[in-house]
Automatic annotation (TrEMBL):
<dbReference type="InterPro" id="IPR036881">
    <property type="entry name" value="Glyco_hydro_3_C_sf"/>
</dbReference>
<dbReference type="GO" id="GO:0045493">
    <property type="term" value="P:xylan catabolic process"/>
</dbReference>
<dbReference type="InterPro" id="IPR002772">
    <property type="entry name" value="Glyco_hydro_3_C"/>
</dbReference>
<keyword id="KW-0378">Hydrolase</keyword>
<feature type="domain" description="Glycoside hydrolase family 3 C-terminal">
    <location>
        <begin position="2"/>
        <end position="72"/>
    </location>
</feature>
<dbReference type="GO" id="GO:0046556">
    <property type="term" value="F:alpha-L-arabinofuranosidase activity"/>
</dbReference>
<dbReference type="InterPro" id="IPR044993">
    <property type="entry name" value="BXL"/>
</dbReference>
<comment type="similarity">
    <text>Belongs to the glycosyl hydrolase 3 family.</text>
</comment>
<dbReference type="GO" id="GO:0009044">
    <property type="term" value="F:xylan 1,4-beta-xylosidase activity"/>
</dbReference>
<dbReference type="GO" id="GO:0031222">
    <property type="term" value="P:arabinan catabolic process"/>
</dbReference>
<dbReference type="Pfam" id="PF01915">
    <property type="entry name" value="Glyco_hydro_3_C"/>
</dbReference>
<protein>
    <recommendedName>
        <fullName>Glycoside hydrolase family 3 C-terminal domain-containing protein</fullName>
    </recommendedName>
</protein>
């Protein structure tokens, strides 16, 4: 899911992805959600054990993701997007 050449009126997950996540979390097993996307998404109702935001991570991203999930790596740095409570009047988050 990216923001290239497309406007969106909401930050909700596309299609049936939210229903799938709800079903997986409802199993009661610990769930780690790994997001590979190009724009912020609204996960306010998600009750996962962890959320790992990788954005579009490049050629070494798969190894980095696995390293973080299995505890071999350490996530450092800052978020590339602010926490959002909903649509804002901001050039990076306002649909064009």
């Amino acid at each position: 899911m990216d923001g290239e050449a497309a406007s969106k009126a909401s930050f909700d997950l596309p299609g049936r992805q939210q229903a799938m996540l709800d079903a997986v979390v409802a199993t009661g097993k610990p769930v780690v959600v790994v997001l590979l996307n190009g724009r912020p998404v609204d996960l306010k109702d998600l009750r996962a054990a962890a959320i790992l935001e990788m954005m579009y991570h490049g050629s070494a991203g798969s190894a980095a993701t696995a390293s973080l999930i299995f505890g071999d790596g350490f996530q450092a740095g800052s978020s590339c997007s602010p926490g959002l409570g909903g649509p804002r009047n901001h050039r990076c988050t306002t649909p064009t």
